[in-house]
Amino acid sequence: MDGYTGKILEVDLGTSRLVDRSTDEKTARRFLGGKGLGLKILYDDFKPDVDPLGPDNVMVFATGPATGTSFPTGGRYHVMAMKSPLTGSVGSSNSGGRWGHLLKAAGYDAIVVRGASDTPVYLRVVNGKAELVGAAGLWGKTTFSTTDEITAEIGESASVACIGPAGENLAAISCIINDNYRAAGRTGMGAVMGSKKLKAIAVYGTENVTIARPDEMKEHVKSAIRKIKENPVTGEALPTYGTAVLVNIINGHGAYPARNFQTGYFPDADRQSGETLAGTYLIGKKACWGCPIGCGRSTAVPDGAFSVTRGEGPEYETIFAFGSDCGITELDAITKANHLCNELGLDTISMGATIAAAMELVENGKIPESILHGLNLTFGNAGAMVEAVWMTAYRAGIGDDLALGSLGLGEKYGAPELSMSVKGLELPAYDPRAVQGIGLNYATANRGGCHVSGYLISPEILGLPEKLDPYTTEGKAQWTKTFQDFTSLVNSSVVCLFNTFALGLPDYADMLSCITGWDLDAQELLMIGERITNLERLMINRYGFDEKDDALPKRFDEPMPDGPSKGHVSLLDEMLSEYYELRGWEHGKPGSGKLRELGL
Fold first, then answer.
1. pLDDT tens per residue, range 218-262
2. What is the layout of strands, in order, in the sheet containing 198-204?
3. Which of 293, 397, 297 lies closest to 342, judged by CA?
4. What CATH number is associated with residue 290?
5. CATH number of the domain where residue 46 is located
6. Separation of alpha carbons 583 and 553, rounded Å
7. Band of residue 478 on the pLDDT scale cut at 50, 70, 90
8. How many CB atoms lie within 10 A of CB 196?
9. Can you give the pTM of this predicted structure?
10. Do 362 and 498 share a structural domain?
């Protein structure tokens, strides 16, 4: 199988049994790898009543045919879990860095983790040899310390994906950190690892991926890189200012959420923008393995209460979450909170959004002073925000409640409507009252409030591949469906979504065909993406999610109070029925005709 190693590692932590099995070519042709392969493995072993923090929950770490090849941005991996402790649905997350490439170089397309260990362990996979190693001495340590100690044992060239104290303490918003600063951030995958006593997975290898048509591949890669370099987003904006280039752009449209989405405009946004970051705390730029874009930022805050000697980020979503969403302007505090999340293993979007929800709960008198123990958790208080991050990781004081995520927090204090989430997953940095297509994507995305399931910001705000009016609903159902299916393909290939600003389905068809030797065209690839989207929908249906859950928080029925988008509301209801019709879904569930069409 060109493009694949042909092996999947099965790990049973309960029995310490490690077994290799072959990657099935028929499955690979229908689901590619990454997210698609992970979903297929989970669906075949599905248990709808599984405890997300119990030993029967299954995790899959998967690469795709593009991982570890010259396909631009081919260093990523996708991680799935049968059930997320945050949402109660399918767990799904994605990360860059070097880990995905090195798992494949170590000889495996994927790792399937079952059961739970009685004592802390880490999994070491080096050049086709896998073994479980005792990790009692690592338990309780930060992600940085864990990475340092493991790489000191097996070599600095290895890559480590690990959890910090947040995952160990089963925080529902904890994540997996690899290469110190790259995060498989969303849906609480760190807590699932923590429940299994799996501290880390370290990978290293030297095996090269075989490509079916290498000479032809070189020509397509040259063309792809040229398009990436010539594109204004991937060739100029992201390399120059990183993802934080969006702060002023989105705020200027009136879609930059502030104070727990009470408004979509933040007057001090420029003080936390990518341009300001470049002129203050930026000390260098970084790229993930195989990436010609290089959006990563190396940063340092040299002194003051929020000093950081060296770190990476913050990204755009993180700046919103700890900045405008919490009513906070100070970029040094945002950078410090981001650094703590990387060190302790927390999803920055869910962490910041949960703090913002807590601030509004405090503002409304829902959280009593006796619970806060003197913590002044109010909008604009940067010190309290940073304090709340480490409290969450260690579940100290109010941090024990914040570790539930915003919906769990809101439910506990009698105001779940103050959780700005969909299907239990906190919303990212775009107010759907100002951008109608992204609102439809939020509502219908299978894993919950997710922007990267179908990034309609690209056409609605950035004008790529063409400019759409963000305030209208016309055509948005079709655009959302297409973007979601294309994204499922991207996450199963597995490459970075950012290359889609410049590359389209024909580029993917050319390069994936050269890698695998299969004759893939754009239409078949989009159908593979649609098959994966529908399989994931089948899984969330089996957990009880349907059309009632394809909804947005009621706040977005209220007119935007100020800013450039003043007076606008979400028009989700105008788009949802057309979306279902295009999908072939009935009441939020795939119909029998659609399942037959997709071979499901």
1. 999 999 999 999 999 999 999 999 999 999 999 999 999 999 999
2. 129-134, 121-126, 198-204, 159-162, 176-178, 182-184
3. 297
4. 1.10.569.10
5. 3.60.9.10
6. 23
7. very high
8. 24
9. 0.97
10. no
